Structure to design on (780 residues):
């Protein structure tokens, strides 16, 4: 079932007294429609990787995750790489994805297309759950153009480029989606007034305006 | 061009207004309300209030790329995209740079839109009066020529304009920033109030106030408009008429009189001079779509085609009497082009205040009025004149999660909450009038209508660059004094034009030998031609100039109407 329709039906039948988190918990089982779209830019292996990574970066909880929205974050990434990204970045992205897939196969001894959530979580954590010192080194290097990166570091540099781009589009696609913009964040298309100073307690759920 | 067939339009109008932007709209309204049958021309397409605002209601998810620029679109508007105002929500208001090319002897960013309403649709709406500090500046320090008007001449017209357009803000009783007819000010947020307090404590020469902006607040009635709804989607055109534009305000007012004939797609290229009568007889246009040439006759002509547009039309209007362009006895036509310097300032992170937030999207920020070179005490060694700051504070959003290595449920929950506070400000600096900052016409590079293109030869000089540096340094000093962290100053190069406050190409003055226009904006030697857009500015001051263009236009239009009625009786 389309989660959006399901949610609307649920809130209608249960009334407004039920908090959104409960509804999302009830819906957490309908996540299967993420595979039905045809990529414009991504290969099927890359699509498989990115669906998993997006789900790891912004997983479903009391609120929907990156692959629960329409269009979902991986599909948004695919669209943006197809329509907007420069050719140079497209090439870097593909190289990074290939390196990540190779790492995956080396580590788990299976093709990336057959990888499961747990395996992706393990490999992703090895890149993103690192010490503060290591993080600084990585982020500093990411600011360099590729020509200035040491040869011995190129693979690592490209892999992080790829992973950070996946994260960027996961966030972008998620937080600018209709579902998150209208139902998760505080939606206020016609505020009518500006209050410059209000206590956070008065903000519904303590969430940001979309 | 003279040999080509030109249709002579049978009706003789009382007045013709060239342009429908912030100045043209006012000329149209005032002339029509004075009973003059007025032809109002615009070179671009028709834009009707509300009806033609295609993006006014769009949320990010309504756009395929969620507001990200498409490189294919950017490729058509490489110059226009240098302005922060351009986005997929607003790009349809800006020209295609290949259809409307210009030439740069020195770099110049000419940001503009060709449609009814002009830049009054996309303007930033900040509205500040000039004062006698500005009107006397040229005379006092000897740059440029003396303004032929003083504050007392323009003050009643500021009153009239502010009352009609609706300007929200706070009166402060400052000599360098006169009080106005202001409606209920918008609120500063907690962090801006903190900066206000710290500036008051640490700097006796300066203060921070809420911006004065052409948005409707308070109880005054404005026909067809409602109060600002704080959507901050102004640049797309406002369905509520919450801010002033020609489309929402002056053109409907002119329309209501029954005296306006609005003709869009009409590129004015020449004001015709009648050698016998010694006055202008009308305006020649090319229909932008059919390329038909038409000659419209009128008793009075108002050129409100924008600074560069008006100067260009006058320069193309050659006759035996005026071989170098209409009214160019002084040789100053096309010279003394100014724009404000911009892009210098500072920003900082603000620790604390995390228990406070705001509601609504305020289309406005704070303002720090000029505090340099007001008197002996504030006199600067390094530069003449001064600058004012505009800025704002806000809380960061989900974008702060990009470019770092966090992920998972915690990240998601974190990014749903408002992030830490940040604050920033930038200054608009006054540019001196230099004869050598000029435009010329290029007859070797014609546009699609066979008209000459514009060459820009304008540059900021020592005074502007020194002031720009001070703008950065003082912004840093104020943010540091406020106790904010991670204070960073910035002072990149700013290309003339990018502040979109270009002005001065047909300046006002006392003397026909050194200026193009007199104190009522009439061409000295051709009194039935008025130029009332930014071209008329004798100095640039540092205030956002649109309010002044409107007041000057209203004053000139009422002068023209009075003269017209006098002549009719005689």
């Amino acid at each position: 079932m389309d989660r959006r329709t399901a949610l609307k039906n649920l809130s209608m039948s249960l009334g407004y007294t039920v908090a959104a988190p409960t509804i999302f918990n009830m819906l957490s089982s309908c996540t299967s429609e993420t595979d039905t779209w045809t990529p414009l830019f991504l290969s099927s292996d890359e699509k498989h990787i990115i669906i998993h990574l997006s789900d790891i970066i912004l997983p479903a909880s009391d609120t929907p995750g990156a692959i629960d929205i329409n269009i979902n974050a991986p599909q948004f990434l695919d669209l943006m790489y197809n329509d907007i990204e420069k050719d140079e970045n497209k090439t870097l992205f593909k190289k990074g994805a290939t390196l990540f897939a190779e790492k995956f196969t080396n580590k788990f001894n299976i093709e990336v297309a057959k990888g499961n959530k747990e395996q992706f979580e393990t490999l992703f954590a090895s890149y993103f759950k690192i010490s503060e010192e290591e993080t600084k080194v990585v982020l500093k290097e990411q600011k360099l153009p590729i020509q200035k990166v040491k040869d011995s570091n190129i693979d690592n540099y490209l892999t992080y480029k790829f992973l950070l781009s996946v994260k960027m589009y996961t966030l972008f696609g998620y937080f600018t989606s209709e579902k998150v913009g209208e139902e998760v964040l505080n939606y206020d298309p016609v505020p009518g007034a500006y209050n410059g100073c209000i206590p956070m307690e008065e903000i519904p759920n303590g969430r940001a305006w979309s | 061009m003279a040999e080509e067939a030109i249709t002579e339009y049978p009706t003789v109008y009382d007045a013709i207004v060239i342009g429908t932007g912030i100045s043209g709209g006012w000329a149209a309204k005032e002339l029509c309300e004075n009973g003059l049958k007025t032809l109002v021309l615009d070179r671009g397409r028709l834009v009707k209030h509300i009806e033609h605002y295609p993006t006014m209601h769009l949320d990010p998810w309504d756009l395929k790329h969620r507001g990200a620029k498409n490189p294919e679109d950017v490729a058509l508007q490489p110059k226009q995209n240098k302005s922060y105002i351009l986005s997929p929500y607003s790009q349809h208001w800006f020209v295609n740079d290949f259809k409307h090319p210009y030439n740069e002897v020195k770099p110049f960013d000419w940001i503009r839109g060709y449609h009814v309403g002009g830049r009054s649709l996309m303007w930033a709406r900040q509205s500040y009066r000039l004062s006698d500090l500005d009107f006397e500046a040229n005379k006092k320090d000897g740059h440029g020529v003396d303004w032929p008007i003083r504050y007392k001449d323009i003050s009643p017209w500021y009153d009239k304009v502010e009352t009609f357009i609706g300007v929200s803000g706070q009166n402060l009783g400052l000599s360098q920033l006169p009080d106005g007819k202001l409606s209920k000010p918008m609120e500063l947020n907690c962090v801006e109030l903190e900066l206000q307090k710290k500036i008051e404590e640490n700097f006796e020469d300066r203060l921070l106030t809420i911006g004065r902006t052409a948005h409707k607040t308070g109880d005054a009635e404005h026909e067809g408009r409602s109060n600002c709804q704080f959507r901050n989607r102004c640049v797309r055109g406002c369905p509520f008429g919450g801010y002033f534009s020609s489309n929402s305000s002056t053109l409907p007012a002119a329309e209501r009189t029954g005296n306006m004939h609005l003709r869009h797609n009409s590129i004015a290229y020449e004001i015709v001079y009648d050698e016998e009568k010694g006055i202008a007889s009308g305006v020649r246009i090319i229909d932008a779509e059919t390329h038909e040439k038409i000659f419209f006759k009128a008793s009075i002509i108002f050129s409100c085609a924008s600074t560069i547009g008006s100067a260009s039309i006058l320069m193309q209007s050659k006759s035996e009497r005026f071989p170098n362009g209409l009214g160019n006895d002084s040789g100053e036509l096309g010279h003394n082009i100014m724009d404000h310097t911009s892009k210098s300032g500072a920003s900082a992170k603000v620790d604390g205040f995390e228990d406070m937030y705001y509601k609504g999207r305020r289309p406005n920020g704070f303002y720090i009025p000029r505090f340099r070179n007001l008197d002996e005490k504030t006199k600067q060694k390094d530069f003449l004149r001064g600058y004012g700051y505009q800025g704002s504070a806000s809380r960061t959003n989900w974008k702060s999660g990009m470019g770092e290595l966090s992920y998972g449920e915690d990240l998601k929950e974190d990014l749903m909450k408002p992030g830490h506070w940040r604050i920033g400000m930038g200054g608009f600096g006054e540019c001196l009038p230099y004869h050598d900052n000029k435009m010329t016409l290029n007859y070797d590079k014609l546009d699609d209508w066979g008209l000459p293109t514009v060459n820009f030869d304008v540059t900021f000089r020592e005074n502007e660059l020194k002031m720009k540096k001070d703008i950065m340094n003082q912004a840093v000093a104020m943010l540091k004094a406020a106790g904010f962290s991670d204070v960073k100053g910035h002072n990149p190069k700013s290309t003339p034009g990018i502040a979109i406050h270009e002005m001065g190409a047909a300046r006002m003055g006392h003397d026909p030998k050194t200026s193009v226009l007199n104190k009522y904006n009439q061409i000295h030697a051709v009194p039935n031609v008025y130029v009332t857009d930014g071209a008329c500015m004798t100095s640039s001051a540092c205030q956002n100039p649109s309010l002044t263009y409107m007041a000057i236009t209203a004053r000139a239009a009422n002068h023209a109407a009075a003269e017209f009625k006098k002549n009719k009786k005689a």
Remarks:
- Chain A touches chain B through 56 residues (CB under 8 Å).
- Chain A has one domain: 3-183.
- Confidence is low (pLDDT under 50) at residues 1-33 of chain A.
